[in-house]
UniProtKB/TrEMBL annotation:
Protein's UniProt name: Sigma-54-dependent Fis family transcriptional regulator
GO BP: any one term: phosphorelay signal transduction system
GO MF, one annotated term: ATP binding
Gene3D superfamilies in UniProt: 1.10.8.60, 3.40.50.2300, Homeodomain-like (1.10.10.60), P-loop containing nucleotide triphosphate hydrolases (3.40.50.300)
Record organism: Saccharospirillum salsuginis
């Protein structure tokens, strides 16, 4: 047995076992796979009687099997193999071009059938397909396992992403199951939902030793895109006085994160597609290609599926990019995170500004809960910093939040006087929350005169006093309105 398994970075994650009695064919196929496909996690077996043992002892995902071998024929081995290892993909590479044999092998469970004289590019494409399918199968199994056990292997990688939402926990579980894949990852979500934080977390648990290199591709014209990603040789164009490595090279052994991919120009889309299809690229002015050693992440706040349907984004590129895809929910779809995040950012702001962190009124929470956050967490963060900078004393109130975009213009009468909006998509406040909001508002309008506030509310002054006391006690004990 010979294997390349000692190399630093192995692709794919599982082994590819070549079973053939001809060492010269092993050599040429191995070289072709490594040079043209970057496939270097290879094991060789010359004696077909040993193949089953190798499958027992190594993590093999794909077997490349010859048919005509002494001792045990390929067909015999195929039957044993598909029975004992139904999850392994077997690609037959036969010396004979016989249609009946091909049909029989496929019936026995082979994934694909090629003859040895097949053009190497076609053979490579077929083997890559088998690898990709295996990767997806394994990731699926891994994901099912994680979802059922509701666990994360590396919770620390996600510790910068504050959340208590169940939907985000599922996002993390999915990301862990695809973190070690070599396939691209597409991160979708509205602006400010934390896509860049997600990219960093997934890179951290990808097992890749290289860097995460980020580039925003929106607005890059095709020439700049080309130079930024692929670099150039000295003298490649007027002004190219020194050689420059592109970001694909900088991300070697790591991850290249292309942000705002929905804004990539059409000509640059073609270049990116070629890079993904061939795994190779030409720095400007170079006559030999370089092999890409980076994994690609992309992010977008746009609906790329729709762009693709409308012809604004190349369909072939879209399908290459979305093998693994995650949708980060907007903040309004995980309102349970609002209080956690606001408190966190407000405390951070207070510390930065040397102020004590304030208490918060229930009315403030209700106003935040009923706001849509079109700018998501980025907007919430800015809102918390702004509120702390202007806050003077006492508990922080809804009126300290100047950034509420849908706040009615000053002086709008009626129900708009309060910050609580009754938009159809918003959660309605509970009666208990409404009670508190009304009391706070009445006290504010009455300039904290209880008798006047009681009159505004249509209750007696002792009744208001009792409610105020209960409110203060709840606030002190951190109890939420039911
Ligand atoms: N769950 C979170 N916990 C803590 N901070 C967060 C969280 N989500 C986002 N942030 C912060 O919000 C801001 C915006 O996040 P980020 O830049 O990752 O968003 P994005 O989705 O990439 O935005 P864009 O699409 O505009 O590039 C950053 O300051 C980030 O640190």
């Amino acid at each position: 047995m010979n294997s390349t398994a000692l190399k630093d970075s192995l692709y794919p994650e599982f082994g590819i076992l070549l079973v053939d009695d001809e060492p010269s064919y092993h050599r040429s196929l191995g070289l072709m796979l490594e040079r043209k496909g970057g496939i270097n996690h290879l094991y060789y077996c010359q004696d077909s009687r040993q193949a089953m043992d190798m499958l027992e002892t190594h993590s093999i995902g794909v077997v490349l099997l010859d048919l005509n071998m002494p001792h045990k024929s390929g067909k015999e081995l195929l039957s044993e193999l598909t029975e004992a290892f139904p999850d392994v993909a077997v690609v037959i590479i036969s010396g004979l071009n016989q249609i009946e044999t091909a049909v029989e092998c496929l019936r026995l469970g082979a994934f694909d059938f090629y003859v040895k004289t097949t053009e190497s590019a076609r053979l490579l494409e077929g083997i890559k397909r088998a690898i990709q399918l295996q990767e997806i199968k394994r990731e699926n199994q891994e994901l099912r396992h994680r979802v059922l056990s509701r666990r994360l292997d590396s919770p620390e990688a996600f510790s910068d992403i504050l959340t208590q939402s169940r939907s985000m926990a599922s996002v993390f579980q999915y990301l862990e199951s695809v973190a070690r894949s070599s396939q691209p990852l597409m991160i979708c979500g509205e602006s400010g939902t934390g896509k860049e934080l997600i990219a960093r977390a997934v890179h951290a648990i990808s097992g890749r030793k290289g860097k995460l290199v980020t580039v925003n591709v929106a607005g890059l014209d095709d020439q700049i895109f080309n130079d930024t990603l692929f670099g150039h040789r000295k003298g490649a164009f007027t002004g190219a006085e020194t050689e420059r490595a592109g970001l694909v090279e900088e991300a070697s052994g790591g991850t290249l994160f292309l942000d705002e991919i929905g804004d990539l120009s059409h000509s640059s889309q073609i270049k990116l597609l070629r890079l993904l299809q061939e795994g190779e690229y030409y720095p400007m002015g170079a006559d030999r290609p370089k092999r890409m050693q980076a994994r690609i992440f992309v992010a977008t706040h746009q609906d790329l599926a729709e762009h693709q349907r409308e012809g604004r984004f190349r369909r072939d590129l879209y399908y290459r990019l979305c093998t693994h895809q995650v949708q980060i929910p907007p903040l309004r779809a995980r309102r349970e995170d609002i209080r956690l995040l606001f408190t966190y950012f407000a405390e951070q702001a207070a510390e930065d500004m040397g102020k004590p962190a304030p208490e918060y009124t229930p009315e403030l929470w209700a106003a935040l809960q009923n706001y849509d956050f079109p700018g998501n967490i980025r907007e919430l963060r800015a809102m918390a910093f702004d509120a702390i900078s202007r806050h003077q004393q006492g508990p922080m109130r809804a009126s300290d939040l100047q950034l509420l975009r849908d706040r009615p213009p000053e002086g709008t009468p009626g129900k708009h006087d309060t910050l609580v909006q009754f938009a159809p998509d918003n959660r309605l406040p509970t009666l208990a929350e409404m009670d508190e909001i009304l009391i706070q508002e009445a006290m504010h309008r009455a300039d904290y005169n209880q008798s006047i506030a009681a009159r505004i509310l249509g209750i007696s002054q002792p009744a208001l006093s009792k409610r105020l006391k209960r409110l203060r006690d709840n606030l002190k004990n951190g109890i939420e309105p039911e």
